[in-house]
Amino acid sequence: MFFRHWNIRLRVGAAVTLLFLVLGFAVSSFCPIPDVMAWGSFPKSRPPGGGHILGTTALGQDIFWLAVMSLRNSLLLGLLTAFLSTALGVAVGLFSGLRGGAADRVATLFTDSLIAVPNLPILILLGSILKGRIPIPALALVLTLFSWPWPARATRSMTLSIRESDFISTARFSGEGTLKIIAKEIFPFVSDWSVASFTNAILSAIQTESGLAIIGMSSNTMPTLGTMIYWANDRSAILSEQWFWIGAPVVLVTLLFIALFMTLSGYQAYATMRRGK
Amino acid sequence: MLHLRDVSARYNLLDSYANAVDNVAFTVGDNEIFGIAGESGCGKSTLLKVMYDLVRYPLEISAGKVEIEMLGAGGEKILIPTGEIRNAWWKCISYVPQGAMHVMNPVSKIKYQFFDTIGKHRKTGNRRLLAKEIADYLRELELAPEVLDAYPHQLSGGMRQRVLIALATFLSPSIILADEPTTALDVIVQRSILTMFKRVQRKVKNSMVIVSHDMGVHYQIANRMGIMYAGQMVEIGPTDEIFERPRHPYTQMLIAALPRIGDNSQKEGIPGKPPSLREPPPGCRFAERCLFAKPECRRAQPEMSIVGENHSAACFRLNSESAGGAGLWGAGAAGGKAAAAHGGGREAGAGREAGNGGVVRAGETTTAGQPNGKADVRGSGVPGGNALEIRGLSKQFRIGGMIFGTKIMAAEDVNISMPADRPWILSIVGESGSGKTTLAKMILKLVEPSGGDILLRGEPIMELGKDRPKEYYKRVQPIFQNPFSAFSPRKIVDTYLYETALNLDMAASRADAKRMIGETLNAVGLDRDAVFGKYPNQFSGGELQRVSIARALLTKPDIIVADEPVAMIDASLRMNVVNLFKQLKTAYGVNFIYITHDLSTAYYVSDYIATMYRGNIIEFGRAEAVLENPLHPYTQLLLDSIPKVGLRWDDNMALPDIESREYQLAGCKFAGRCAFAAESCRNSRPAMREAQEGHWVLCFKYS
Amino acid sequence: MVITVKFFRFLLSRLAVYISVIVIGVTIVFFVPRALPSDPVEAMLARLLAQSDYMEPEAVAAIRGTLTETFGLEGSLASQYFGFFKRVLLTHDFGPSFSQYPIPVMELIGRALPWTMGLMMATIALSWVIGNAIGLLAGFRKEKWYSKALESLSIVFYPIPYYIVALFLIIAFAHLIPIFPLATSVRGRGLSFDHIKSILFNSFLPGLSMVVVGTGWWVISMKTLAGNMSEEDSVNFARLKGLSEHRIMMGYVMPASLLPQITSLALRIGGLFGGALVTEILFSYPGLGMLVYSGIAQNDYNLIMGAISISIVAVATATFIVDLLYPFVDPRIRYT
Questions:
Q1: Do residue B248 and residue B181 come from a single domain?
Q2: Does the structure's ipTM exceed the value 0.95?
Q3: Is the separation of the CB atoms in B141 and B162 below 8 Å?
Q4: Domain shared by B147 and B286, yes or no
Q5: Fewer CB atoms < 10 Å away: N or C end of chain B?
Q6: Nearest residue, CB atoms, A174 vs list B446, B489, B503
Q7: Would you call A118 and C273 a contact, using CB atoms and an 8 Å cutoff?
Q8: Which residues in chain B land under pLDDT 50?
Q9: pTM of this prediction?
Q10: What is the nearest CA distance from A271 to chain B, expressed in angstroms?
Q11: Total domain count, chain A
Q12: What percent of chain C has pLDDT over 90?
């Protein structure tokens, strides 16, 4: 099988991530509740059982389906942001690394600066003005603004080192055009690494959104894992010891992040090994 | 004295072992320099580690031991065996590592690197006193004590190596081990460092062991030497004996394959490649490649047997015949080989002149073919007629930004004409920083010139590359130094071959391309089935370089630019590739521009040679003329500095410091280091002159 | 120290990034309110009025005036833009706070800033030191069992988000075992023992959560760096010198692998600052994060804009300072 050479970290990470994807995108489509966020749909603060697998919240929501839908939205946001920022970052990095000269210097200064600009305060400002009415695609765009510089930076340095290698010259002297050289000689190396970068971008997008959500600065009409924690925390789920309400999103977020990170670091180890082979 | 008692060592590869050192036994005597020669992967560096007792995972000693023998205070014999040798490091035995570039701690000053090595052996307790002592010692070795306050990156490569030698000899240990101490250094620096080794040894009268792949280095400094092959010592003897009367077939072939200046005979590399150290063959490890192998050679391993005074070798032919009291075969054959290499050189050379005297006549036809009458370096040939014409080419590099940067002339007023009617191999020789690689890159359009023209059959390459790029790639093709970096590790090599054939319209269809690639691979001695479908790392360096050559040949180019194409290839295989260039020149009518630092190979392969120094071509002419009768003081110095086999150095010759980074803007660039420099040399620039027929030189001496 | 060309070039490039970070950050802050469909001033004002029962018309007019000024809505776009920069960088005048009228915003920021700075500096320094120490050990002694255990532990711990750790600590040590306070209340003032003890006591949990979260990354990256460094020629030569493994680790592997970690620290300050803001809010810790949070809750836009602009400048400055440490550690930049 294709995962025969995968290390244990990559296997566990990928398996759990896959489980989350199934839960988020397949299971969620069977959700019987039209609006999981609606208050008072069910009796409040019920323990698990009686049609509610994980019980209900103090706001009268079904905890299981709320958690599943939150997971779906968080994953959607993460994937969208990761896709956009990896694509943009790789494009800018390739351009900057291949073009060189003044264009490269300007692009590098810009990416380096954007990395150093603290993004959370700016997101808080935006959240405070929008007051939680921001849809997921728009939020993904905003998060992309702050996450594309990382892949851009890495792609650029990779491109710079590959650009000087002899095999690029060999390809040129084999009559290959610039676009083909980028696609066939440089991109395979970049794309190898992009898998890791993509995973990392999912992780950091969900991380940032949930950080924002937990202080009530993200979308508070759309359930995400972060908003679920926010409401639980806001309604003192801890003090009233409603452990499933606060526990479900906390466990999901923690496991998801560990799984993604294991995939990421496992993949890096795997890629290193494959290069060494 | 250092005894190796049947030592075997291996690398633990988890699923198997690589038997890097197999049953090696010899003794390094007091007051001698012992050389260990062999190709990459033969186990010579591992052997040195074992001698130094640097055995840590994954390396392990599987049998035998090493012993240092010393005289104690009362004159009694002390033996320090493996396992305890490390307690005697630096005091009794020290080590000079390979590649001084990276071995020093980059963030600490040189003096601290001395302190942490020898501090604990000198219980002065006072660093100031110790520093003074070290400074005095450096002065003794003619090194400036100021280096102690410098960081490693502030010193040149040669300086770093000298400092390491000083470090290794400071405590006057009785044994000094050095692993490829001059690899990656330029020849002039190499010579001064090897001379330093010799002087130190002569003064302290200790034992030195020097590992090098370069037979010339051994010839110059070793008193005795051992030849290693595939983990085993195959021959040990006095250096002169080894070079003049080699007994083991491997040694014989290795020495016969060495190119020598002044020797025109045809050299052959050794066919095949060394066996894997993981599963070595049961018999003699060289049997596969040996011309004299008999069935018994493949069954059992030969023992070392004495073949002369202090001289022993491990070969069945020597065993059986010396047992019979004759030993004649060895002597006779070796003598014959040696004769072919030395004395016979002249006749063989003459034969070559007579046989395929094409080279000489090529020059004459060239002469006739050109209105100007001469192959020259002034670019005065007629543009349309020359395969390559370089006129007034220059390249400036700026180092360190717009504001504070300094300019470096990597090429200055370079002129070359290569006629189209007769193919040449033109070698461009020089040290690192001479601009030879920049010149190659400009011809390959990988670097844009700052001024001047490069014309291919009269067409400037910049325009040709812009208007008809395919035509340009058809006419000029590169071969790179490291074949493994010339192909993407992610692609099978056929893709490049097909791309070249199809993209550049050399083949009409894929089938056509396949046939053509097959033919070209045959021409470089490879079989299509053995090449197709393989990734670069599945080839040996020599094989992959052939694939690289085949790819370049596919376009039937006018010119192949080869930048140090054999530098990464082992000596026994190098000649096979170099011979290929000579064959292809005639068979395909292709000109080669052969960039190299190796003067002997350049002499062997090329028709013409140009010497470069700091961006200028300073001497140009027929290969024999330039290297047998060099005119420019720099070419003379270079020639004096290469570790030649057959002519020993004068150890007292003073060598100018060639490593200075200073770039003179007025006057001859070499004036600062030239023994003959006059006032005019420092103030004005010499011009290229034809000092002898067809032999040009950039020096006032000949104006 | 000799100022060499190389050092000067390094300085210039870092300075360029510093200036550019401030320009980009402040520009975004300037344009965000403008990019929104509605007039922020009237929207704010409406929200503000809806919130309070009654307000004097003069007060409303005054607030409209400062709001317009805060968002820099007077004059042409260019003059608004440069005016905004002038306020952020030079005058620091963000007008009065609405929620705590008429205290100037800058005074509130001035009170909160030391808390945030103190918390961040202490926790970043601690986690950097601890993380690098563990990572060095784990990377240099790869084969040892404890290296593998430490690595596995940090791979599991590192991705856990900071707020989860914060929530866990709150549940564990403020709720289940109430040792620490749920919200900050400081006793005493000045340099008294009571005061300092109280500050440390109140900072303990937020600090702990940031250290726990921050350390993992340094462990992981240092482990890789130290692991690679242990294969370097210089380290192998140190072994030939006969130095002890401890000397090699401290004298050779550590200095060389700490260098990239300094650059890395500079790159990560911005992200760490975001984490600190959220942590402060969860612990009701009286720093910039809490200030912004309360500003948002009370629609105090002068306060929000002021605190966010200042924090961008502060983070950029901190990044710049960390960057400048580099040449002091790496002689290759100091001397050529």
A1: no
A2: no
A3: yes
A4: no
A5: C
A6: B503
A7: yes
A8: 322-375, 378-383
A9: 0.81
A10: 12
A11: 1
A12: 18
